[in-house]
Amino acid sequence: MGAAHQGGGGGFLARSELAVRWLLGIQCLLSGINWWYKILPFPNMFDPPGLPVKAEVVRAMLDSGWMFTVAKAVEVALGLSLLSNRYVPLMLVVSFPVIFLTFMLDANFLPALGGYWHGDAPFQHLAAKVLDMLYFGGACLAMQVFLMLSHFDRYRPMLIARAAPMDWSRP
Amino acid sequence: MKSRLMTALAVLALFLGVTSTGWMLAVTREWLLPWSTFKIFLPAGTALKQDR
């Protein structure tokens, strides 16, 4: 279905949906696969314990033994869904917590700003925090939100204030 | 109005999508790794001073 249901006048938006879907799909697939097969210089399940982490919450996820694996499995599933254009609206919802928390990990650059302000850290460290916020977490969140809004008509039935349960006795 | 906002979001998503893919490749190839917080994975002694 994908862009086909976007109707007339959506030429640019339909082409954008395709491009953004591929961009986010490739990024999520590479990032997810990296957990089992190292292709990026990011944490991998076969890394020795005790390596530095970007945030302590990541260390807690690694130490749990399953949380990071689940998050990476969701990334792989989202990547495959986006690239194959199968179950895209569903996977965008399923993966939203992972994408949002990834953004939140990169979003807090205030300690880096404070460190730079007080002369405890070089400008390069502040720049690294801002660039990662923009190009890792921020970019993924922007693409995710755009894709979810592109498929908003699929979510509209969920936006009901008082929902009655389904009648399973109905043939 | 909604269509214009959606077009603006599409432009932003495309821009960030293309540049972030470039950023990811640059960090992966270690061209820009010192400019990413992933510099913590650089060999000991080459990492920049942290902010705490």
List the helices and strands and how they pair.
The complex is a heterodimer of chains A (about 170) and B (about 50).
Chain A: H1 11-33, H2 56-64, H3 67-84, H4 88-107, H5 110-117, H6 123-150, H7 152-155
Helix pairs in contact in A: 1-3, 1-6, 3-4, 4-6, 5-6
Chain B: H1 2-28
Task: Please provide a written account of the structure.
By secondary structure, chain A is an all-alpha fold. In chain A, α1 packs across α6 and α3 crosses α4 (88-107). Chain A has helices spanning 11-33, 56-64, 67-84, 88-107, 110-117, 123-150, 152-155. Chain A is built from seven helices and no strands. The two termini of chain A are 28 Å apart. With 52 residues, chain B is an all-alpha fold. Chain B has one domain (1-40). Chain B is built from one helix and no strands.
What oligomeric state do these chains adopt?
heterodimer
The end-to-end span of chain A amounts to: 28 Å
Count all strands of chain B and give the number.
0
Please state roughly what percent of the residues of chain B sit in beta strands, choosing from under 5%, 5-15%, 15-25%, 25-35%, 35-45% or over 45%. under 5%
Q: pLDDT below 50 for ≥5 consecutive residues: which ranges of chain B? A: 45-52
Order of helices and strands of chain A: HHHHHHH
- Biggest sheet record of chain A: none
**Most residues in contact, chain pair and counts:** A-B, 50 and 34 residues
Principal-axes geometry of chain A comes out as: globular
Q: What's the overall geometry of chain B?
A: elongated
Count of alpha and pi helical runs of chain A: 7
- Rg of chain A from C-alpha positions? 19 Å
Biggest β-sheet of chain B, characterized? none
Q: Encode the helix/strand succession of chain B as letters.
A: H
Cα-atom radius of gyration of chain B: 17 Å
